[in-house]
Amino acid sequence: MMVLGHGVDLVDVESIRRWIEDPRDPLVSRCFNAEEITEIGEGSDRVERLAGRFAAKEAVLKALGTGYGAGISFKDVVVRRNAGCPPEVVLRGGAASAAAAMGVIDWKLSISHAGGMSIASAIALGVPPQSAHPAEGPR
């Protein structure tokens, strides 16, 4: 396996808090699936966890080289985390199609928080698809 893409994103937690509280643009319902919202839960660090997940989604989309739009939504990237385990990436819809076209078969994802910021790094691993016209070898 080889690294096929890498994305990093840094998010200001207070900016995410303001975005969550703005009724004109509901970040949570637009960017997170019900299973992610349930897993994130409530508590004093809820906004920090949402910011980290948002940064992770952005990092994954950067690793894919797509960003969002053109058939790919934030909800196509699901970030899961079980206690004591590293976060994992599950792709659906357009993001899954983009990853398959690149040959991505696994992800390494890291999320961290400090000083009112959340950062995520996503590494796409896999085997690139064979070229339609492979280079000719020696004869």
Automatic annotation (TrEMBL):
Residues given in the record as Mg(2+) binding sites: D9, E58
EC nos: 2.7.8.7
Protein's UniProt name: Holo-[acyl-carrier-protein] synthase
Main EC class the enzyme belongs to: transferase
Reactions catalysed according to its record: apo-[ACP] + CoA = holo-[ACP] + adenosine 3',5'-bisphosphate + H(+)
Short name of one Pfam family: ACPS
4'-phosphopantetheinyl transferase domain: residues covered: 7-102
Molecular-function annotations in GO: holo-[acyl-carrier-protein] synthase activity; magnesium ion binding
Keyword terms of this UniProt record: Cytoplasm, Fatty acid biosynthesis, Fatty acid metabolism, Lipid biosynthesis, Lipid metabolism, Magnesium, Metal-binding, Transferase
InterPro entries found in the cross-reference section: 4-PPantetheinyl_Trfase_dom, 4-PPantetheinyl_Trfase_dom_sf, ACPS, Ppantetheine-prot_Trfase_dom
Record has Hydrolase as a keyword: no
One GO CC term, this protein: cytoplasm
Compartments where found: Cytoplasm
Co-factor requirement: Mg(2+)
HAMAP family xref list: AcpS
Entry keyword annotation includes Coiled coil: no
Family according to the record: Belongs to the P-Pant transferase superfamily. AcpS family.
Lineage: Bacteria, Pseudomonadati, Pseudomonadota, Alphaproteobacteria, Hyphomicrobiales
Role played: Transfers the 4'-phosphopantetheine moiety from coenzyme A to a Ser of acyl-carrier-protein.
Biological process, per Gene Ontology: fatty acid biosynthetic process
Main location per the UniProt record: cytoplasm
